Amino acid sequence: MRRLPSLNGLRAFEATARHGSFVGAAHELNVTQAAVSRMVRLLEARLGFPLFERLPNGLMPTPQATALQPSLSAALDQIAAVVEQVTAMRMAPALTIGVGPSFAVRWLIPRLGSFYSQHPDIEIRIATGGTLNPFKDDWTCGILLGSGEWPGLEAVPLFAADLCPVCTATIARRLRKPSDLAKERLLVVEHSPEDWPSWLAAAKVKLPRGGLGPSFGNYSMVLQAALDGVGVAIGLSPYVDDDLAEGRLVAPFKLAVPKGNGWYLVYRPFRAKDPGLAAFRNWLRTDPAV
After folding, report:
1. Which run of H or E residues covers position 186?
2. Residue 235: strand pairing partners
3. What CA–CA distance (Å, rounded) separates 119 from 103?
4. Nearest to 37 by CA among 23, 58, 48
5. Domains, the chain
């Protein structure tokens, strides 16, 4: 039978030792400073020796505290990791996918019907995230644009990320050669201002004298503007695949330029055998709709 001190007392001591104060520990544990101090005193009484010297200008850990804190921190980290893994194991498969808004609207959501037809028992949640956001702990997986290097995460290559100008058929009829773009309104994605310069450089065309613009907050906005005939957008695959296939937009030039990154399915290693993730990963690899 284990005879352990109070877990609350151990947590209060460990947080205090890391922060060097009851105030920092109280903020982390979301309790009052007095509550932390009391839990530490109770732990000291249980152990039979002091853990801190209370000095006028702060706390000084005793030798016993210095010996205890590293192993206790590692043990608490291990408990947290095990709880996270067990929480991820559900009786009914669930799948939380972190994606950017543009990827969700322009590629993933239109294909979810195909996934559900094969896996009606899997609960899907689409979480806001993606290229410009960090990978979150509650995601089963994410679909991210990048180099394929995310420390601590597995990354499975999915698609290339190529850039090409897209516009309505009406505008496309005016574009005989890339230099004709100088006469058009070139639409810009605010967070990817390098897209147009990259494509124009590959096409050996100088930037229009008046520069680029207007700009839009994301690819969904800029492509909607192109659909409405506002100007020529720089399209990113696979965002534009459906519009091009169905003729809503036209790519007036054959030149496609790699953005320099690719699309990856990203997840934490311990989730590799998660049933929802396994089904989603297999669907991405084999379904013709993808």
Report:
1. strand 186-189
2. 164
3. 21
4. 23
5. 7-88 (1.10.10.10), 93-290 (3.40.190.290)
Residue 28 has pLDDT above 70, yes or no: yes
Q: Are 140 and 154 in contact (CB under 8 A)?
A: no
In three-state secondary structure terms, 55 is strand
CB-based contacts of 20, cutoff 8 Å, min separation 6? 58, 59
158-179 per-position pLDDT tens digit: 989 999 999 999 999 999 999 9
**Residue 203, pLDDT above cutoff 50:** yes
| pLDDT, tens digit, 9 for 90 and up, residues 30-84 | 999 999 999 999 999 999 999 999 998 889 999 999 999 999 999 998 888 887 7
Q: Which has the closest alpha carbon to 76: 12, 11, 137?
A: 11
Q: Alpha helices of 94-233 — where are they, by DSSP H?
A: 101-103, 109-118, 169-172, 195-202, 219-227
Residue at 154: amino acid letter: E
Rounded to 10 deg, the angle between the 63-88 and 7-19 helix axes is 110
